[in-house]
Design a protein that fits this description.
The protein is mainly beta and 191 residues long. The chain is built from one helix and nine strands; from the N terminus they run αβββββββββ. Strands 5-8-9-1-2-3-7 form a seven-stranded antiparallel β-sheet, covered by helices on one side. A two-stranded antiparallel sheet has the order 4-6. Strand 2 and strand 3 form a beta hairpin. It is globular and about 40 Å long. It starts with a helix and ends in a 16-residue tail after the last strand. About 13% of the residues have low confidence.
Length: 191
């Protein structure tokens, strides 16, 4: 009696694992203004949004604002301003969780670096998607993840009084949605 139950459980587990393997994922490899690597942010589609896992180092201890910006451009010569403003997918949105008309899609909650400058945290957001469509962060010029000098006050326009940009990473898709065939393929039976 246990054998059919175990077999059913195994089939369901393998199906769930296969489905999770095809969900869109992305990664950002961040660098500091000095050009040195700061760590990574892994983006993964989960059943209730996008899970972002940060593993960063070399930061000043304390709170730091993290935002997605509209351009996939991390030019150190511009102090990472080449990444443009914070990502908004709905025209007219304001920056900040506490601002009237906010938040924008690229607003993420502050995260904290320890005394050793290491920041390891996870957040889930439903403000954007990694796949295709109107809520996708993947357009022609990409998107960047920016780490700011201080924490975001969630209110001040346009960047939450978070200080200068000290880290940047272009978000790159690592696993995308399965490609759709352009036309149906007909299989001819053997004679």
């Amino acid at each position: 009696m246990l054998r059919p139950f175990f077999l059913s459980f195994l089939i369901l587990a393998l199906a769930a694992e296969a489905q999770a393997a095809t969900r869109p994922r992305a990664v950002a490899h961040l660098i500091g203004l000095d050009g040195k690597p700061m760590g990574t942010a892994d983006f993964r589609t989960v059943s209730r949004g996008v899970l972002i896992e940060f593993d960063l180092s070399g930061l000043p201890p304390g709170p730091h604002a993290l935002h997605l910006h509209v351009a996939g451009n991390c030019d150190r010569k511009t102090g990472f301003t080449s990444a443009g403003p914070i990502l908004t997918l709905v025209p007219g949105k304001q920056h900040g969780y506490l601002a009237e008309g906010g938040p924008e899609a690229g607003d993420l909650p502050n995260q904290f670096a320890g005394a050793d400058g290491h920041l390891h945290a996870s957040v889930i957001t439903t403000a954007f998607a990694l796949g295709n469509g109107k809520r996708s962060i993947f357009d022609r010029d990409g998107v960047s993840l920016i780490v700011d000098q201080r924490g975001d006050d969630y209110r001040t326009q346009p960047l939450g009084n978070a200080g200068g940009r000290i880290g940047c990473g272009v978000v790159v898709r690592t696993v995308g949605p399965a490609p759709r065939p352009k036309r149906p393929v007909a299989i001819k039976p053997r004679p």
